[in-house]
Amino acid sequence: MEPLAGAGSRRPATLADVAAASGVATSTVSRALSNPGRVNAMTRERIERAARELDYVPNSQARALTSGRTRAIAVLVSDVTNPFYFGIIRGTQQQLKAAGYTQLLIDTEESDEFEDGMLHKLRRSFDGAILAASRLTDRRLTTLATELPLVAINRQTRGVPSVFIDTPSGMEQALGHLVSLGHREIAYVSGPETSWPNEGRWRALQRAGGAYGVTVRRIGPFTPKKSAGAAAADALLNAGVTACIAFNDLLAIGMLMRLRERGVSVPDEISIVGCDDIFGADFCSPPLTTLTAPIEQAGRTAVSILLSRLESDSIVAARQSATLPTHLTIRASTGPAPHVKGRS
Hints:
HTH_LacI; Rossmann fold
């Protein structure tokens, strides 16, 4: 005689076992566990209690075949080694775990082709996708949004649900800070040309520069990694400016290291501002003035928007976008412009 399912038994509990224990049909159990909102609250609680007592573990592959849902969400980042994405990944993981979903992490290696290819190759493995700093074109991203449920982080494209970290406004804050210190010749150290946030930050600095009556020059593009900081620092010294705002903290930290090697004092001779306030930005020498962004919150918010769409089965019913503010955190990498030092 086959032993009963549950804790200490020889075989794992099945959907039928849960149905028998809770006195309902197998189809009702399936609905209660995959789409709780479609089952009466009292019945759902009875089913969930039976599932816990039997140590029932859903078979994700079987569930996907019968319901078309995998309970998995793909999270795509352009460089998994970049500390900026640590916060995104942590935020999405926490929110997905709380909702009973699995996170499928994909590193797109800064490649739009690889990003597009992975979305198609693994399409049957996830219910929806979160694209952090996507390198896809607006046209391609818009098309994808009609083919699968997705949310873009740090990207605003018409028709695409998004969570936007408002670094352009932060750029205006950073420029105002430098102007208040007497800087008039300022550079923007550009990130990748394919980066949508990069262009948004540059446009914001151009507008703010005109409003403040100062010159903002663009140098680059540079890879958004610490290793690119040396070339960026050398280019900065050739630009004849007294301050710069870098695309991200990694680039800024690499610049600080190179400037120290060349005997250039920061901030006495040149001021540096980063972006994102990643882990380590306050540990470098000198500690980095940077834009502080709610990175983990962006991940959690993106999951909320995506699950709202999935569970409502209606694009219209789901919240489509959110904007999260940033603020400038002032540390020791910025100071008065050299020509105003010593003034009272």
